[in-house]
Specification:
globular, 21% strand, seven-stranded mixed beta sheet, 18 strands, alpha/beta
């Protein structure tokens, strides 16, 4: 089959493209921005273009797979429509690729990538040879976000955005939590929770949902779906190679899965003890020219921010924590305004680097970062500095903010990771 992937640089679609290429299909793709993910795809002899004007669309094509960021009016989708080429979303394609397999789905508001990575590592160490699709890059996968195994076992990070995970057919579900997000797709929490209920209902009756029994929202979803709960809170909090109670709680889910699959418990704990994190999850990115360590993290929801900063405060008790945060979307910032204002208690200094406008075509209201900063200062008891853009944040850090023995934390889901790289040079 000849497959073209529009938005191939996405963390999910790039993994799909790699899997289909490894399965013997002819795969090409396009994206507007170059990246190390695209470099890796090129190394696999997948043709990748940075032109999305339709010029990269293959003359012969059986299937167009597009990311959620590609609208129906995009040139490549228009060409596919005109030529009668079948076109489907990434998650529908992922559902097709994993249909009929022993599919372990990791879903939830927070912790999906880390938990998926832990499960993948644990199963690999146990000799289970899983196929993997994960929303981050793993050291254990050679810096990749995918793995091709030889069997029928799949481990897949399962995103709830726009009900994408409904295209999957889970055999086992790990539910990390479900406290609400993606307000452009779910105007109310009830709608958000219902999406999880409907996903859990797809699970075979013989299989449990692995979740935290002390998480009322997760328990309510499982009960409404009339499925069995396997309580991960019965597992121990094991030491890991990355800090934070939230990471240990993710590991509890993996240990519960190990018990369900009858894996050796001691070996599972040993495997997780060797877990040292993944790309953009409290990732150590190096040091500034003045020797200040830099941490890069994907946290963009208040719950994630609190957990990450608490973990780093515990891991670096003698350091002053300086955090550069880039809010992700105006809608999320406005909907979780009060939660954001109290999320930064564990940092000493906060630089707000402007709001990353990921969905300018759909967002109707604008959040004011200056007002947000004033309220964070009042409620989180930290110094707040506003920077209009990443370049200004970089200049402020170097000229007036950073001091010896600081820890620099770069945080957000937009393009802020580039700041971490620039600060090392």
């Amino acid at each position: 089959m000849i497959i073209h992937c529009s938005g191939i640089g996405g963390i999910g679609l790039s993994a799909y493209a790699a899997h289909m290429n490894a399965a013997g299909h002819t795969v090409s793709g396009s994206d507007k921005n170059d990246s190390v993910l695209l470099d890796d795809l090129r190394s696999q002899r997948i043709q990748v273009s940075l032109a999305q004007d339709g010029s990269a669309f293959p003359e012969k094509c059986d299937l167009l797979v597009y990311s959620e960021a590609i609208p129906a009016s995009a040139p490549e989708r228009t060409i596919a429509t005109e030529r009668g080429v079948r076109q489907i979303s990434y998650f529908r394609a992922l559902g097709d690729m994993t249909a009929g397999t022993d599919l372990i789905c990791i879903c939830g508001t927070h912790g999906k990538s880390s938990t998926t990575a832990m499960v993948a590592k644990m199963l690999m160490d146990a000799g289970k040879d899983p196929n993997v699709v994960v929303g981050t890059k793993m050291r254990e996968l050679g810096g990749r976000n995918w793995r091709k195994g030889k069997g029928n076992l799949w481990v897949v990070e399962s995103c709830e955005y726009r009900r994408s995970f409904h295209f999957l057919s889970p055999h086992i579900i790990l539910l990390t939590n479900a406290d609400g997000d993606h307000y452009d797709a779910y105007p109310t929490y009830e709608e958000y929770a219902q999406a999880f209920v409907e996903f859990v209902e797809k699970l075979p009756d013989s299989q449990p949902v692995i979740a935290h029994g002390n998480d009322a929202q997760s328990v309510a979803i499982i009960q409404q779906a009339k499925k069995k709960l396997m309580n991960a809170d019965m597992q121990p909090l094991v030491p890991l190679g990355t800090p934070g109670l939230h990471m240990q709680q993710n590991a509890q889910l993996a240990l519960a899965l190990a018990e369900h699959l009858h894996l050796d418990a001691a070996a599972a704990k040993q495997s997780l003890a060797g877990y040292s994190g993944t790309w953009r999850r409290m990732e150590k990115r190096g040091k500034t020219t003045n020797g200040i360590e830099i941490i890069d993290d994907y946290a963009h929801h208040p719950t994630e921010i609190r957990a990450t900063l608490a973990a780093l405060r515990g891991a670096y008790p003698d350091h002053r924590l300086v955090t550069v945060f880039q809010p992700h979307t105006h809608d999320r910032t406005l909907r979780l305004w009060d939660e954001f204002t109290t999320a930064f208690n564990d940092t000493d200094v906060l630089l707000l680097a402007g709001i990353y406008d990921a969905r300018p075509d759909t967002e109707k209201a604008q959040a004011d970062p200056v007002t947000l900063g004033k309220e964070i200062h009042a409620k989180s008891n930290c110094q707040v500095i506003n920077a209009s853009a990443l370049q200004e944040a970089k200049t402020l850090l170097r000229t007036s903010v950073l001091q010896p023995n600081d820890l620099l934390i770069v945080m957000g889901a937009g393009n802020i990771s580039s700041l971490a790289e620039k600060m090392t040079k």
